[in-house]
């Protein structure tokens, strides 16, 4: 019975192959390692400077004290505070300014970065693309922004980072002033409309009061009802007396006529109270009963509208005055916590790390080449011309590196 040959290779077999080709590995790494390191030394050092900025705690991005007026405890002012954004500082507008083409173009021209990036045709878009690769703006968990700039000159990198902080503040002031002006224009329109509506409500209520002699409907209504009840009681008393006199002495009795006149007068007065649209000009208190429901409703509507417009005025007037103040403010809106200083330690290139990584890549590239060469040299039969060419090539490599199998 023929003996079975085990063709499965173990880990030690692969290690042994690498050991046989160790000269190739060592010589190749010794040649390419210093060469790589030398090439890396041709790359100039660059330095990273960082400035840290934040919004002052009391700043509200263009609303300032305007939202302070809306920090009251009642629901209306609390709603106003939320609508105007008076809760927490938002870094998004600052990030938008820093990443804007306007700001970055200004810095490119200010520091002559077209020449620094060696853009031959003075193409601004190419310079912007290169510049954006050397800058970063990172919001921190504490509500700050880190402005980082990379440059071959440590002093220039710090100057650019600090200039970012300055231009951020100046543009933010301009944008806040513009926002404050827009707020002032909006509030001013609402304030002026409120004045017109308030005057209209006052005139409407005044006309109603003058026409019907109304000043306070609940109190006047109470007086009118009591007066009408007293007149009704007097009428009932006089009618009873008149009927008694008429029964005893007849209608021609001298005592009957005065009582009859009093009864007629009281009846007319009651009819006026119930049916007249306006009582005698002598009465400034009594209200006519005929139109009392409509009159009461109209009075309440006019009075309510007047109260609403007065409440609106209480809100819009201080907002309008504060908006005018905010429009004129030009105080700094950005606080620089850490001013950028020229770094003393280079940011890149990491020559040692890069060299090690490249050598590892070369080693892993050599592995399949070595195993392929081992297979080509140990092959006993060549089935095609490609295998023959492989054998000749790796045989030359073996002689050049003086490999011993």
Task: Quickly describe the structure.
By secondary structure, the chain is an alpha+beta fold. The chain has helices spanning 11-20, 22-41, 65-68, 75-83, 92-98, 101-110, 113-116, 124-132, 154-212, 217-249, 256-275, 292-328, 351-378, 385-400, and strands at 47-54, 135-139, 144-151, 335-338. Strand 2 (135-139) and strand 3 (144-151) form a beta hairpin.
Detailed description of the structure:
The protein has 14 helices and four strands. By secondary structure, the protein is of the alpha+beta class. The protein folds into three domains: about 20-45 and about 350-400, no CATH class; about 45-200 and about 325-340, Bacterial polysaccharide co-polymerase-like, CATH 3.30.1890; about 210-310. A four-stranded antiparallel sheet has the order 2-3-1-4. Helix 5 (about 90-100) crosses helix 9 (about 155-210) and helix 10 (about 215-250) runs antiparallel to helix 11 (about 255-275). The longest helix is centred in the middle third of the chain and has 59 residues, at about 155-210. The protein is elongated and about 165 Å long. Residues about 1-5, about 60-90 and about 280-285 have low confidence and may be disordered.
